[in-house]
Amino acid sequence: MKQHLLILLFFTGIIPVVQAVYRKFYLILQGKTRSDALAYCRATYSDLATIEYQYEAVQLKSIAQNQSCTSYAWIGLYNDVNSWRWSMGNEPLGSYRNWCYPNPDNYNAQENCGAVNLTGWIDSSCASNFPFICFDGNFTGTSSYIYISTTMMFSEAQSYCRQHHTDLASARNTSENSIIMAMIQSATWIGLFRDSWKWSDQTPFTGITWLPGEPDNSLGNENCVSILNGLAIDLICSRIRPFFCQSVIKGRKQIARVKVQSNQDVNDPAVKAAILDKMNQMFSVHGNITVKWREQPNGQVFNKIKEKTLKNNIC
What we know:
The strands form five sheets. The chain has a five-stranded antiparallel β-sheet, with helices on one face. The chain is elongated. By secondary structure, the protein is α+β, with helices and mostly antiparallel strands. It has helices spanning about 35-45, 55-65, 155-165, 175-180, 270-285, and strands at about 5-15, 20-30, 45-50, 75-80, 85, 90, 110-115, 120-125, 130-135, 145-150, 165-170, 190-195, 195-200, 225-230, 230-235, 240-255, 255-260, 305, 310-315.
């Protein structure tokens, strides 16, 4: 590299420090049920694998290919079918139940909200449009239950009741349930709902790539998830499958935005290395900090904004 290389760095802003989670994945080829796989991962590593970003799904696919695994393998995603609770006060479902058999059956893996019909409680898709019953704590007895004939989705009905009354009605005992049953003529929302898909390590669920047609809960209790080639399916949790574990390293991550002015091509590998070395020297006074470039989708680090003045992020 030429000795007269000129590098000027201008910091244009610092994004606040965030907690970063780094996952290392392990494929265990010995088949186990999902519960046994979970226990093994928690005893040996951290947990069953979580896929929070698409590149992590790519990592799992690569690991499986390297180990010649062609079977679906357990990951940490599961359907929390036992988390039913009441909207009012977020109160867990108690001992009183009035489910109409075969409900709750989570038909087609889409039924996370509860309604009542003439024969009892049913689980239904939260996107269904039903009339609903609100509860108003300003009144007593049967007057505190208000039937709304306008059909809405569950979330809309919940918002309406919370805005105009107290909340969707609960049926926590025989007395409350009898009042509600006397008011309805067809399927009607009450304040019964549950959680859906969750990661076993408590990472918030945002989405995953499913095999077309999945999840379908075709056998009625397919509450656990396996993955192959980046595509997920729901399965009965007692199936014997290989599985992915993870170990987790937590650290702090901060992104600095800089402008770089140089008399050479800053996308040249040698120049990029020299700039990065300078950045590491600058940050070394703050402790054990690793600085690396954040590449763009096209593989480039810098975008030219005007002649000899470029900018990018480092992390």
